[in-house]
Amino acid sequence: MKLHLEIWRQADHTSEGHFESVDVPDAEQAMSILELLDHVNSAYVEDGKEPFAFASDCREGICGTCGLTVNGRPHGPDKNKPACQQRLYSFNDGDSIKLEPLRSAAYPVIKDMVVDRSALDRVMEKGGFVSMAAGTAPDADSLLVNHEDAELALDHAACIGCGACVAACPNGASHLFTGAKLVHMTLSPLGRQERGRRAKNMVDEAEGTFGPCSLYGECADVCPAGIPLTAVAAITKERARAAIRGKAD
Asked: What is the pLDDT confidence band of residue 143, given thresholds at 50, 70 and 90?
């Protein structure tokens, strides 16, 4: 399988980047996007050239570090799959593929296709935790949670923080990410103790760094964890509740 690649090169966030053309004569359809880059880099190393920098870790769709943009779409052509799970079955012999970093003003380029997504970490630092007295673990049945709430909380806790939702949004909004965290923590018994404070702090941080919601739902279309678009509603709901009831509840 022959492919023509246009791969992004950029030394750092202060430098201008450019696309570098690479022809791959022996790609296999079973390869993932990351394995294709591995294949290209192996050839570059053998030829004494500098390999392309890109991020990855588990390559099992769990860690969220593999985010990149494939032909203008975060992660790749298949819906709700991370880049490490995107296979070349979606492409035909002779196709051209453009590979570049996740694009967002909140994601400065570190090198090539590696970006700094610490803006998402700063949102989590504002409330993505629970405050409680440490000690002996409570009995499993001491904090009751009904089945529906537990399942919904787990659905939203599945967010892997890859940041594709921000890159997909034309306004660079983080509403799907932030909303997923708020829903997860709100439905957890321990998380309810500082619900108002969490909502105010996390939403303030998100809105101060990222853009407003575009209302089109591009974020949910690319989310590898399948976080529902309804998570976005948690931003307004939880922030309004905090304003009415007071942030300390």
From this structure: confident
Q: Looking at residue 193, what is its pLDDT?
A: 82
Average pLDDT over residues 45-65: 96
Q: Which residues contact 55 (CB under 8 A, 6 or more apart)?
A: 65, 66, 67, 68, 113, 114, 115
Question: Does residue 247 surpass a pLDDT of 90?
Answer: no
CB neighbours of residue 52 within 10 Å = 21
* DSSP bridge pairs for 87: 32
Q: Which CATH fold would you assign to the domain 117-245?
A: Fumarate Reductase Iron-sulfur Protein; Chain B, domain 2 (1.10.1060)
Q: Which CATH number fits domain 3-111: 3.40.30.10, 3.10.20.30, 3.40.50.300, 2.60.40.10?
A: 3.10.20.30
**Domain range list for the chain:** 3-111, 117-245
* Tokens standing for residue 156: 């939203």
* pTM of structure: 0.92
State how beta strands 3-9 and 96-100 pair: parallel
Q: Where are the beta strands (DSSP E) in the chain?
A: 3-9, 18-24, 69-70, 73-74, 96-100, 109-111, 114-115
